[in-house]
Amino acid sequence: MGGHPCCYKQKLKKGLWSSEEDGKLLNYITQYGHGCWSSVPKLAGLQRCGKSCRLRWINYLRPDLKRGAFSQQEENLIIELHSLLGNRWSHIAGHLPGRTDNEIKNFWNSCIKKKLRQRGIDPATHKPLSEVKDDGNESEKKLPTSSQANKGNIVGMKKSFLPPQASSTAHESCSGGSGLSGKPSDHLLQCYSFRQINYADDMGVDRPFDYNTVPGSPSSLAMHNSIPVSTFPAPAIVAHQVNPSISLLSDNSGITSYSNCSGFSYCTDSTPFLWNCENKFDKQLSSTQVHSMVEDEDKWSVYLQMPYLSGSSYPDAEPCQAYSNIKPEIEGLQTLGFPHPATYNGLTL
DNA sequence: AAAGGGCGCAACCGCCCGTGG
DNA sequence: GCCACGGGCGGTTGCGCCCTT
Questions:
Q1: Which nucleotide is nearest to A38 (CA to C1')?
Q2: Tens-place pLDDT, residues A20-52
């Protein structure tokens, strides 16, 4: 594209793609794959640069793209992930099958930002606007840039928590998983408690547990504190999406788990368990119970609510209507051992 | 009906990173 | 170590549509 060597070798077309160009690109990639993008336009008979072709394919022509408006669950997930990952759209997109980073970025900038502000939430920091001293422009600066984030900081993480050994070991450990031994696999550890960690850090209270003491999981310390962007969540294979917010994950150990990346993970092997906020398995669930939990989107949707959406953390925010509707369900779930979505270790988030 | 503003979206821009020579 | 290049990403721009005045 502009400025790129491939672009000024010859006069290349810019701007909107015609249906004829789309057809050429689609036919070529369908038949031969894209291979080296810089060679695609020539081979496909297009007067475009390779980057333009790549973008067109990824954002528009790819057959697995999901069309249409974002669902409420997708929106909630985007907000949740943005609070964890910041403006790392490609990583957020990785959690929404069929959605592109460009699409999510546009949706965020045009729609979600506005909604959050209307609810009294600063979209940049995910904190109440009343807590954000300066105007919006200033608060935007609080987000790490992508390059900063790629160097190991995570949104909301304080530097003091960065471990000395934060390194590639995190990458290495992510692909495994120790579920067979009865301990949480690393990818579950990784999914677990980000929200709690962020809130604990933000609110200046103790973290739920010391990662140094997590048995058999020294790597998870590095993982939690310097989470390499490319491995959040860990590179477990996303087999399919149970619903837009809950991934069915499989790792090398054969463990299958469900995770909503909100601090609640469920693992189903021969001994299904509920991993509670005490970081231990204290509740045995039958497969039927687990599947029931996962498949009941209404229940999950409650657990996916950001605390501020339920009005518990940010009094100025409007209470979530769905939350009040489903309150009896929550109480029922609590009797099963599920923590309240807006509490943690007795702390109201 | 025309002008203007808001909005959503597609595409470009500029930068960074990884790789290979 | 340096450079060229390809690929990828987030930020930004510009166009077209729609609604309001």
A1: C6
A2: 888 888 888 888 888 888 888 888 888 888 888
